[in-house]
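Look over this one:
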Amino acid sequence: MMERLDRRQGLLAALPITALLAVSFLAPLLLVALFSIMPQKVFSVLNMPDFSSFGVIVSQGYYRSLFWSLSMAFAATVILLVVCWPLAYGMAKVFGRFSLVLTIAVVMTLFVSENIRLFGWVLTLMKGGLIEGYMRSYLGAGPDGMLYNVPIIVFGLVYVYFPFMLFPLAQGISMVPDDARQAATDLGATRWQVFREIDLPLAAPGILVGSLLSFVLAAGAMAESKLLGGQVVIVLADDVETAFTFGQNWPLGSALAMVLIILVGTVAVVGLSRVDLDTIMGRKR
């Protein structure tokens, strides 16, 4: 009886934020979904449904932009996982109070606009920029600019979304009991075996959450390809912006957005369905 009463009170308490989310999140998403099935280049949903925009996505090769968005997001996620694991492990198991200093240092980067930080890298990596100028001054030679290619776009994604992998990963690693690692070592397990059989399976929730956050955000990113890549490849988010602005084709932009939302949303839902969020949030032991 008490449990049922608590659940009812919880639902009532959640009503205001639920209504706010419905208005601010679900309503715009529904509007985009409606526009995606409207005829080409109309600015009202008061038309008969027309799925021609999805045909345009295939006929005009917009799937290439989708491929670049997803493939670079996947590459950045894999690199982030490899790069963040040692630091996340140190924050969870080794550094102690120094972990707070690292956390503050990483979080402070989020206080500065993503575009400003990327412009800093443009000045650093451009032809005649800081790196080339320094190397030519002291070594007599240097790279002829390092911008405007796919690897530098992936580097930008790794740089921007580093915190979104680091913190969930550190949380996941902190859930691995030291006793389990010690017991495996006492039984003769090598470091690789401990990593493969103990660390990875028990830290899997943090790995999955960090990977999902990084992949979802990177798949919809646009600034990295524009500023660092010089649009050497066009990502889907850029096509969406172009359709809504210069193209004045809201149905096409909405259809492109829905394709990305459905694909990335499916990955996120499937991934989160395999995660015990109560354990991660410390509500269940």
Notes: The mean pLDDT is 86. The first helix runs from residue 2 to 35. The radius of gyration is 23 Å. The chain has 15 helices and no strands.
